[in-house]
Amino acid sequence: MQYRTDGKSGNKLSALGFGCMRFPRKGAAIDMEKTERLVMEAVNRGVNYFDTAYIYAGSEEALGAVLDKNNAREKVCIATKLPLVLSRSPSDFDKFFNKSLERLRTARVDYYLLHMLTDRRQWERFRAMGIEEWLAERKKEGRIKQAGFSFHGSQEEFLQLLDVYDWNFCQIQYNYAQENYQAGKTGLLRAAAKGLPVIIMEPLLGGKLASALPREAEEVFGASGKKAAERALRWVWNHKEATVLLSGMNDPAQLDENLLTAETAFPGSLTAGELESYRRVVEIFSASYKVPCTGCNYCMPCPQHVNIPGCFAAYNTSFALGWIQGMQQYATSATLTSDQTSGPGLCVKCGKCESHCPQHIPIIKSLAAVRKRMEPLPLRGILRIIRAGLGYSKRKSGKAD
User: Fold this and answer.
1) Digit-coded pLDDT (tens) for 51-98
2) CA 43 vs CA 14, 112, 250, 290: distances in Å
3) Which residue in 84, 95, 127, 172 has its CB near the most CB atoms, within 10 A?
4) Residues 6+ apart with CB under 8 A from 329
């Protein structure tokens, strides 16, 4: 196994981390027999970073049971998350944290994340609730070793969030198909420059970069004889700033393939020819995009807090890789992860964004197209219901529902 150093703690972390959201299931329940085999095979072959979350149904309990049964707790680092979307008062911090400890059968969490921290406004709300003091107390007690956050939002907001607290690490989405999406490469480099270990999620874009590539893209990668999933993982590992890459492995063959890849995918190991193949594949994706947005972020910040690049990225993905995949991105970028939405319904047509766009995109018109596709009228009502259930019912979401 290849290990990369967490510069904040000195921990040697396996380059391949086990994402525990997609444990194999038997009906609605997690298949404990298969999960145990997978987890322990990973541990025995050097994986020492396991990522779960309070809201991953059954995941914390399953991971805790497997590690406890096999006396493997001290061989690994456990990462889990505080569900910000469920936290209403300061007392919720201990309620959710203590429940996670109980489920995981452990006295500490090695890497504890604020789950889906989206923007500065959301941070300020939790800071007013005492999250800084709470984290300091749990760290003093030794029950939290490293404190960080997972991010879904605009690049501008990510760069601000890096400076609002003395974080120990962060977690971002990053893959070759969306190098400038959300935090993007700029965010990756900025976080690493601050000395933060960066955990990478969605290296395969929900599996789409492994199993749903356009035929033309498969032909480009096929010329090198490498599988699509391996190519996607190697691209991430080629970055020295990427400390751990999370993969949600749910079968032995997938685990074995990823372990073998992790042993040889070192920073800077891709050749110029291989990097060119990624560029060509991205061009193939781009041919199906409806908005020629490069994610340069010159249009930001939007006075109305619209996440313009995030909206366009999700919209384009809905054409390149399917509406469901695009909608998943749209939900995390614009509608469901913060008390303040950042969707196209907030646009007041001021035109500031268009005056700064180097691609000369008709942003106002394009945002209207995004809303029509990603928030059709029937779905707007469903989104309102979901947001109300999350306690966001009184927050602004758009002008004309």
Assistant:
1) 999 999 999 999 999 999 999 999 999 999 999 989 999 999 999 999
2) 10, 20, 15, 44
3) 84
4) 181, 310, 313, 314, 317
Judged by DSSP in three states, 172 sits in strand
Hey, what amino acid is at 240? Answer: K
Of 249, 277, 305, the residue that ends a domain is: 277
Contact, 204 vs 210, CB < 8 A? yes
Q: Residues 349, 302: contact at Cβ < 8 Å?
A: no
The proportion of the chain whose per-residue pLDDT surpasses 70, expressed as a percent, equals 92
Give residue 12's pLDDT.
Answer: 98
- Domain end call among 277, 310, 340: 277
Structural domain contains residue 203? yes
Q: Per the domain annotation, does 398 fall within a domain?
A: no
Is the confidence at residue 349, as pLDDT, over 90?
Answer: yes
Are 112 and 52 found together in one domain? yes
Q: Global pTM?
A: 0.81
Q: Are residues 264 and 347 in the same domain?
A: no
Q: Which two tokens stand for residue 388?
A: 């109300």
Tokens of 328: 């998943």
Ranges 14-23, 225-234, 317-326, 332-341: which has the least confidence: 332-341
Length of the chain: 401
Q: Are 306 and 332 in contact (CB under 8 A)?
A: no
User: In the prediction, which pLDDT does 313 show?
Assistant: 85
Within this chain, do residues 266 and 306 fall inside the same structural domain, yes or no? no
**Are 164 and 216 members of one domain?**
yes
What is the C-alpha separation between 138 and 301, in angstroms, rounded?
35
| Residue 109 placed within a domain | yes
Facing residues of 117 across strands? 151
Q: pLDDT, tens digit, for every residue of 236-288?
A: 999 999 999 999 998 899 999 999 999 999 999 999 999 999 999 998 888 87
Domain tally for the chain? 2
Domain containing residue 346: 291-389
Q: Which two tokens stand for residue 149?
A: 């956050």
Say yes or no to pLDDT of 398 above 60. no
User: Is the domain of 271 the same as that of 297?
Assistant: no
